[in-house]
Amino acid sequence: MKIPPYLKKGDTVALVCTARKFFPDDAKPAIALLASWGLKAKLGRTIGLDSCQLGGTDAERIADFQEMLDDENIKAIWCARGGYGTVRIIDSLDFTKFKKHPKWIMGFSDVTVLHSQLNVERVATLHSIMPFTVPKAPEEVKETLRKALFGEAISYTIPSKLYDIKGKASGELVGGNISILYSLLGSKSSIDTDGKILFIEDLDEYLYHIDRMMYNLKRNGYFEKVKGIIVGSMTDMHDNEIPFGQNEVQIITEIAKEYNIPIAFEFPAGHQKDNRTLIFGKKVDFEVNEKEIKLKFD
C-alpha cells in the first residue's frame, strides 16, 4: 500500500466536484479552514458549474479531476460534496501518473467510489468531511482531518455498547458507504475484504434495503475473511408501514454472527456532524471490550 506524502505548510489542496454541484461562495469555510492550517486552496474548474444535479458534465468533471491528479503542485484533492455522480467518471480517469506520485484524496459518501478504486490501485485515501460539511463540523472533527493530512498520530477510543460484539482484530481498514460498496460489486472497483477491517455507513435508507445489501455482500463473500466490522452512522433509516421487524443493528448482527468477528456500532464517522477521519488502506488495531471501542492506526 502506498501512503501519499503528508502535507506541510504552504502546500496546495484542490477542491473539485466529482458528483453534485458546489459553488465558490460555499467553498469559503473550507478555504478558510485550509488557510488556518497554513495550506493554500485551488478551486477546480468544476466549482461553480451547474449541470442539473451535477457539478459540470461528465466530461468537465473528468477533465478537472484528471488535471488535479496530474498536477505535481497539488498535494491533495478534496472532493467538494457527495450525492451521486462519481461512478459516471471513474472509468475515464487515468491513475498512471498518480500512482507514481500519489496524493491524498479526501471525502466520504459518493467518494466511496474513489476510495474503492484507489484501494484496488493500492493507494491510501482519507474518509473525511468535505467542503460541503465543513460549516457544521465540530472543531475536534476538523482536527482529525488536519492530523491525518500532516501525518500526526490518530487513534479513537469511545464507549462500547451492550450490542457491540466483543473481540480484537488487526488489519487494513477499507470500506465506506454501504450503498456504494454494494453498487460496485462485480466491477473492477470492488474492494478485496480478505483480512481487512471493514467500515460501513449509510444515510436515508429503508431497513429492508440495508438487509438486502448486507445479504448481497455476504453472498459475494465479503464477510468470509473479514477480521472485523466497524459500523458508522446509519442516519435517518426508514421503515415501511408494515414494519420490517429488525433495526440496522439487528440486521447486521444477524447476518454477520456466523463469522465470530468484533463488530462496533455507532462509530463516529459518516453522515453526521461527528464524522472523524479514517485512513483507508492503513493497518489498524481494533478492539471492542466491555467498556470501550478502540481504533488505532499504525
TrEMBL record:
Single Gene Ontology BP annotation: proteolysis
Pfam families: Peptidase_S66, Peptidase_S66C
This protein's record includes keyword Hydrolase: yes
Keyword terms, alphabetized: Carboxypeptidase, Hydrolase, Protease, Serine protease
UniProt keyword Protease present: yes
MF (Gene Ontology): carboxypeptidase activity; serine-type peptidase activity
Domain LD-carboxypeptidase N-terminal: 13-127
Catalytic residues, chain numbering: S109 (nucleophile), E201 (charge relay system), H271 (charge relay system)
Domain of life: Bacteria
UniProt xrefs under InterPro entries: Carboxypeptidase_A_C_sf, Class_I_gatase-like, LdcA_N, Peptidase_S66_N, Peptidase_S66C, S66_fam
Location of the LD-carboxypeptidase C-terminal domain: 170-284
Family under the similarity heading: Belongs to the peptidase S66 family.
Name of the protein: LD-carboxypeptidase
